[in-house]
Design brief:
single chain; about 120 residues; mainly alpha; 4 helices; about 80% helix; transmembrane helix; membrane; transmembrane
């Protein structure tokens, strides 16, 4: 089961790279890469939280408050990315949604690393 957990961590990190990298590369529009990265982050984050909480063999003791904060931020990132991409496809200018999605993704990384 540890292999499945590690695979989910890798996918989670790739999702983060897609959101932040897409933000830096495609600014001022929300790229498809950002949308898929945000989706991957949300899904793999839930999988990681479930595995860490449910399997004693992994030896993880997740901080539920931290996970709740990260979940709220991840939902906001995915929402801004989805709406920003849909608006961009219709030709609307959505610079602030790109900045919101990318900025919140970076905030989520900071929460993950700095919250002890």
């Amino acid at each position: 089961m540890e292999f499945v957990y590690d695979l989910a961590v890798v996918t989670h990190l790739l999702g983060m790279a897609a959101v932040v990298g897409g933000y830096v590369a495609a600014r001022p529009v929300v790229s498809e890469l950002m949308v898929w990265g945000a989706r991957a982050q949300l899904i793999t984050g839930l999988i990681l939280a479930g595995l860490a909480s449910g399997l004693d063999s992994l030896g993880k003791e997740p901080d539920t408050t931290k996970l709740a904060v990260k979940l709220v931020i991840a939902i906001a990132v995915a929402g801004f990315a989805e709406v920003g991409r849909a608006d961009a496809k219709r030709g609307k200018k959505v610079d602030w949604m790109t900045d919101a999605a990318g900025g919140l993704a970076i905030v989520n990384v900071l929460v993950a690393v700095l919250w002890n």
